[in-house]
């Protein structure tokens, strides 16, 4: 599929480059740009590094999918992506992406990608591509009923609002200040913002509208999928922490990440990201997500498991007799 036009119909204000003042998305011009080094070998550089000072997992997933897509013909569409994070990424050096053409069939083709730093793999994935095949067998879940993005505050506006409140816990204040200072290439509008003023348990579910900053245009659908791969990892695993806000997190990192692409969409138009965590235990958490187009079409389904370690609660000191 050469173009994503017509997918996820959006209001006229979102259609066309005028939405972003004719500015091309940095995801298109920088983050997902790979330098070809040899046949099926590419180099990727970094744009945004989280406060953890590890490479952002969504960037690695997105760049790996770009590398895989360069090794298939234009008439194939990505339908699934299965990834493992095996080592922490080093933000001080580029990442090499090595593609293996695992299988090329009449309907489906598989490409394996290995991301390498310091001579060792930090990430491995397999992406499967399909020749378009219409079918009368179709169904999907129903999109949740939520306020439209025009009625909600952006994440930056929410953070500024929280920081003005004197009742905000100090440990949250420092984290929010760090978030506000970052230049993240995506826009978010939370539907059910987390409660930063109390340590109450919350349902392990969050919803937010999300889109790429800037304009992507009528480019190949595979590129919109690469942008969605980048977006899908942002704040995803933290869904598992919502019922456990009384714990101090000491370590949190993704173990694996899976995506299934169902229908065409525009990653530079508002999409609803529905995230939930059905389980956590054994120092791990599982999260599932669905990306919805504004017209109710289910575009992408995601799943991820990650390591979550928290500070052990101090045992009450025994009384001295």
Automatic annotation (TrEMBL):
Domain Acyl-CoA thioesterase-like C-terminal residue range list: 186-308
Broad EC category: hydrolase
GO MF annotation: an example: succinyl-CoA hydrolase activity
Record GO biological process: acyl-CoA metabolic process; alpha-linolenic acid metabolic process; dicarboxylic acid catabolic process; fatty acid catabolic process; fatty acid derivative biosynthetic process; long-chain fatty acid biosynthetic process; negative regulation of glycoprotein biosynthetic process; peroxisome fission
Principal subcellular localization: other
UniProt-listed Enzyme Commission number(s): 3.1.2.1, 3.1.2.11, 3.1.2.2, 3.1.2.27
Domain Acyl-CoA thioesterase-like N-terminal HotDog: 47-130
Keywords (A to Z) from UniProt: Fatty acid metabolism, Hydrolase, Lipid metabolism, Peroxisome, Peroxisome biogenesis, Serine esterase
InterPro entries linked to this entry: ACOT8-like_C, Acyl-CoA_hotdog, Acyl_CoA_thio, HotDog_dom_sf, TesB_ACOT8-like_N
Annotated stretches, region: Disordered: 1-20
Compartment(s) of residence: Peroxisome matrix
Cellular-component GO terms for this entry: peroxisomal matrix
Reactions this protein catalyses: choloyl-CoA + H2O = cholate + CoA + H(+); hexanoyl-CoA + H2O = hexanoate + CoA + H(+); decanoyl-CoA + H2O = decanoate + CoA + H(+); tetradecanoyl-CoA + H2O = tetradecanoate + CoA + H(+)
Pfam family, one: 4HBT_3C
Subunit structure, interactors included: Homodimer.
Family: Belongs to the C/M/P thioester hydrolase family.
Protein function: Catalyzes the hydrolysis of acyl-CoAs into free fatty acids and coenzyme A (CoASH), regulating their respective intracellular levels. Displays no strong substrate specificity with respect to the carboxylic acid moiety of Acyl-CoAs. Hydrolyzes medium length (C2 to C20) straight-chain, saturated and unsaturated acyl-CoAS but is inactive towards substrates with longer aliphatic chains. Moreover, it catalyzes the hydrolysis of CoA esters of bile acids, such as choloyl-CoA and chenodeoxycholoyl-CoA and competes with bile acid CoA:amino acid N-acyltransferase (BAAT).
PANTHER family, alphabetized: ACYL-COA THIOESTERASE, ACYL-COENZYME A THIOESTERASE 8
Entries under NCBIfam families matching the protein: tesB
Protein name: Acyl-coenzyme A thioesterase 8
Species, as recorded: Naja naja
């Amino acid at each position: 599929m050469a173009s994503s036009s017509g997918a996820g119909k959006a209001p006229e204000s979102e259609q066309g480059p005028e939405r972003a003042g004719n500015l091309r998305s940095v995801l298109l011009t920088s983050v997902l740009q790979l330098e070809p080094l040899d046949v099926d070998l590419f180099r990727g550089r970094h744009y945004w590094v989280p406060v953890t000072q590890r490479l952002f997992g969504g960037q690695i997933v997105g760049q790996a999918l770009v590398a895989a897509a360069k090794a298939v013909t234009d008439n194939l569409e990505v339908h699934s992506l299965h990834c493992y994070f095996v080592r922490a990424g080093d933000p001080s050096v580029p990442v090499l992406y090595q593609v293996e053409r695992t299988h090329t069939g009449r309907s489906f083709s598989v490409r394996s990608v290995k991301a390498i730093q310091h001579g060792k793999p930090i990430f491995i994935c397999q992406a499967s591509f399909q020749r378009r095949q219409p079918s009368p067998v179709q169904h999907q879940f129903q999109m949740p009923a939520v306020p439209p993005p025009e009625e909600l505050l952006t994440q930056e506006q929410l953070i500024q609002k929280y920081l003005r409140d004197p009742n905000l816990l100090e440990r949250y204040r420092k984290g929010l200040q760090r978030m506000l200072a970052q230049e993240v290439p995506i826009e978010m509008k939370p539907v059910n913002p987390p409660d930063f003023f109390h340590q109450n348990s919350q349902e392990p579910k969050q919803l937010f509208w999300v889109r790429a900053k800037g304009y992507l245009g009528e480019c190949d659908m595979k590129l919109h999928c690469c942008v969605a791969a980048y977006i899908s990892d942002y704040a995803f695993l933290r869904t598992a922490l919502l019922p456990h806000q009384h714990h101090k997190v000491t370590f949190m990192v993704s173990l694996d990440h899976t995506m299934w692409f169902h229908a065409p969409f525009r990653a530079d138009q508002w999409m609803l990201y529905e995230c939930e965590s059905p389980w956590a235990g054994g120092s791990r958490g599982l999260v599932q997500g669905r990306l919805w187009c504004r017209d109710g079409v289910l575009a992408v389904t995601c799943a991820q498991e990650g390591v979550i370690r928290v500070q052990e609660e101090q045992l009450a000191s025994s009384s001295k007799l």
